[in-house]
Design goal:
The structure is a homodimer of 490-residue chains.
Chain A lengths: L1 H18 L27 H8 L2 H12 L6 H13 L7 H16 L3 E14 L3 E7 L3 E3 L1 E3 L11 E8 L2 H6 L1 H4 L3 E4 L6 H17 L4 E5 L25 E4 L1 H12 L5 E6 L2 E15 L4 E11 L9 H20 L6 E8 L7 H9 L7 E6 L7 E7 L2 H12 L8 E4 L8 H4 L5 E6 L4 H4 L12 H20 L12
Parallel strand pairs in A: 5-6, 6-7, 7-8, 11-12, 11-13, 13-16, 14-15
Antiparallel strand pairs in A: 1-10, 2-3, 2-9, 4-8, 5-9, 10-12, 14-16
Helix pairs in contact in A: 1-8, 2-12, 3-15, 4-10, 4-15, 10-15
Chain lengths: 490, 490
């Protein structure tokens, strides 16, 4: 997989940064990405179709009641809790991830889901090892770091070098002559995840190109309690691979002030990070098979891998468990739709949608049967609705379906040119799809950090998300007409 | 100082917990502590006095303008920044604290403040050393900890023991038979700082009394990004001293869930903490001497020591620098009051007001001349006014004075039976005094943690606090009548 993998990783890291521009509801550049602001009144769905969708009202209420007040109340949180407490973090390449995958396969079988299986994927195996950064001049103090995925390590004795702080890639270029032999620290503003995460993604490459010996990136978050956030990065072609890690907002500001005060700054960076040979992982698949068109598929999904810090309860334990919960809930209610509802728990998302890419290759001939693809990977906070990618008629259908969620106040439909992380490879090619849209304004406070724990999750919100996910999947899988695959507006 | 110190530490730790009940504006039990809810309309100050106070309007506006728009704009933040960037944390007993004290003495002299000097205090010298906690059963994962002040260390090989999680002291008593040989984990709710911090203060003692070998305390904070918070604790008489540290909210919840699930929990705790012989530190004193009654004193203060984590920018760099700033600002404007305005930067507050107690003993004969004592030690966020301790006539005077702060919207006067940390020993004996009252609802997010950095502080808020502090000190020091020393209401 060597060359192919490198190419795919490079491309997908770039893609992930692009995709993630739309991941945060609360970024300044978000509104501009909502290309279709037509309201429901502009929809001209056939009356029959609207009536048909409305006829699902009692079924959806049954789903909601079971999740919010009934037999499934608290189940999603309780199962997620048991999962993260048992396995903790689940980084690509780790045995822990494979144990967690075994668990979800066995659990889905036990729960009576259908066609449960894993599908093999070769995945990266990067390990962090010991790491530390120490400011040794102008005074001695420890700097909190988290090495970035795919980073190389330092020599055992570490790298001791002067620091050059820059605020942007342009700033780096203007100071290129000073960068040689230095540790470049990026103190870029947090504008939005997408626009800021590019510093994490290619900061090391750009620093290496001007002769830096390492790079430290301000964590991609709007808020910090001295919290470093990791994430993936990739080295460009023909650059010397230099070690790279993230630092906290506080330390980025501190180093900036020291530089502004004209002080000489030196840091000793030690990282044991290394990339081991690829390992075999699996995407997990479970279904409730369709009664009339089992070959036609509505997908709900999340990714089962996480970073190696925190517990991956939010990113993306929540996404996995509302997807598992949607199927388990439908199963418990005996609801089988005309089409198949398939849950997929992607592997190795964090290293560039590795599992999803493999799935796309393995199922290239099935894509026409993917009726609607959904992923939850931007938080399972209190739901507000869906972020939708697709054409106008489809949007009108989704809006009608979401009216059924009025009792949990989650009827919103935001349109975006792209949704999801793993599912982007389908939605970008015209397969209609959606992400779960929740009150995720604090998502990046926790993202890729030790703060990604079960404390982020809320039982009631998870119940509502499971109800929403199950309802949308069931209705779209059961409609008398296939969901329209139109060209996207905008 | 051995026996005496132990007694004082015990007593003052208890006191600090009691005092701190009123430190947080945002606790449920706060309202009940505001014993005097009389409004300004109930005041019957002589018209002459009200007129006299109002006549300071132009002087106070001059002070405010200098701080907010003029020559002193940004100075408090800039000086605080230089201070914390240069010295970082400043724990009692450390050379770094003494270097910081030297710096403030030299700075105050350079700034033209008067009678600048240090006054010796013997202070505790507790050091943290290396520390770690590892969950070894049911799975292997690191637990973030911060050892508590005065804690003993573990043997070099650590303490490996089963865990017993309790929710309260009552819960501990009900499970006392299970505690022997265990590590007791306190997962107490955060209700208010005062009511919760008692678990930090005496959790180890209570655990030791039922045979525990160590104790871990849930950090005293309402919010966490996997953030441990340290603080002082003391061992009761005749108990075996067991190692004790704080853990994060997230890990306390995690351990609780593991116990609730019936899993056996084991932790390996390693701490090198030890208490070295006392060292000599200093309270720093600087003045603007009174023109008519130099022996009569209005005090503004904060404490210069901090914990050994973070930078102590908030706790209590901000308090020190608004107090320094108040005098430097008055000096820069050539404002000398009839009475002396004295700034004190207390040492070793964090180990039980050690500097303040020494000062009280050394100046027992001067107490009658303490006209009004102020301290800022609960944050220098955007100011809302003062928290006041004293009688009704005094409150009416303070309310009149605070009207002069209308242009910075900081006219509030909240009455409390006690204010301050270091100054409580005077206000509790009837010396009228006040704490700075600010929008400090997030104070305990940062308190005693690595997140206590300059990022917590805001230049504009510091300017307003300096203006408020200088204005109140100047007016109260300059009034034609002494501030009344009445019995407190309520």
């Amino acid at each position: 997989m060597g060359v192919c993998r490198n190419f795919i990783v490079l491309w997908t890291v770039a893609l992930s940064l692009m995709v993630c521009v739309v991941c945060n509801n609360n970024t300044e550049d978000n509104d501009s990405l909502i290309t279709n602001k037509k309201t429901l009144s502009e929809c001209n769905l056939p009356t029959e179709l609207k009536t048909e969708i409305a006829s699902y009202s009692s079924t959806v209420e049954k789903i909601i009641n079971a999740a919010v007040n009934g037999s499934f109340k608290g189940v999603t949180y309780r199962e997620l809790s048991l999962f993260v407490d048992t396995f903790g973090s689940r980084i690509s390449g780790s045995q822990n991830l494979e144990n967690a995958i075994d668990y979800m396969i066995n659990k889905s079988i036990t729960d009576g889901l259908e066609n449960v299986h894993g599908e093999d994927v070769q995945v990266p195996h990067w390990i962090r090892g010991f790491e530390s950064a120490t400011l040794v001049e102008p005074r001695n103090v420890s700097i909190s770091i988290l090495g970035l995925g795919n980073s190389v390590g330092t020599p055992p004795e570490g790298i001791l070098a002067e620091v050059l702080v820059v605020k942007s890639f342009d700033d780096l270029q203007s100071k290129a002559a000073q960068a040689k032999g230095k540790i470049v620290v990026y103190n870029q503003e947090f504008v939005s995840y997408g626009s800021s995460a590019v510093y994490r993604g290619k900061g090391a490459t750009e620093a290496s190109r001007v002769g830096a010996v390492a790079s430290l990136i301000r964590s991609i978050t709007p808020f910090s309690l001295n919290t470093p956030h990791t994430g993936v990065q990739s080295y460009g072609e023909n650059v010397t691979k230099i070690p790279t890690a993230c630092i906290t907002l506080e330390d980025a500001h501190f180093l900036q002030r020291l530089q502004d005060e004209g002080r000489t700054i030196k840091i000793l960076l030690k990282m044991e990070a290394q990339t081991l040979p690829d390992t075999t992982s699996r995407n997990v698949v479970a279904e409730i098979e369709g009664t009339e068109h089992p070959e036609k598929i509505v997908i709900v999904s999340g990714h089962i891998d996480s970073w190696d810090v925190g517990n991956g309860a939010m990113d993306d334990g929540g996404g996995v468990f509302v997807s598992w919960g949607a199927l388990a809930l439908l199963k418990s209610l005996g609801l089988k739709a005309k089409r198949t509802v398939r849950a997929i728990f992607w592997t190795a998302e964090e290293f560039g949608f590795v599992g999803a890419y493999q799935y796309a290759r393995d199922h290239a001939n099935d894509t026409d049967n993917f009726v609607f693809v959904m992923e939850s990977d931007i938080g399972t906070f209190n739901p507000v609705g869906l972020e939708y990618s697709g054409g106008t008629t489809g949007r009108c259908i989704v809006q009608e379906v979401m009216k059924l969620l009025a009792s949990i106040n989650a009827t919103g439909v935001r349109q975006s040119p792209s949704v999801g992380s793993d599912i982007y490879m389908w939605t970008s090619k015209g397969v209609p799809g959606a992400s779960l849209d929740t009150e995720n304004d604090k998502y990046f406070w926790y993202h890729h950090s030790n703060a990604d724990t079960l404390d982020v999750e809320n039982p009631d919100s998870l119940d509502k998300n499971t109800a929403l996910w199950a309802s949308v999947a069931y209705v779209l899988a059961d409609l008398s007409v296939d969901f329209p695959r139109e060209l996207m507006d905008g």
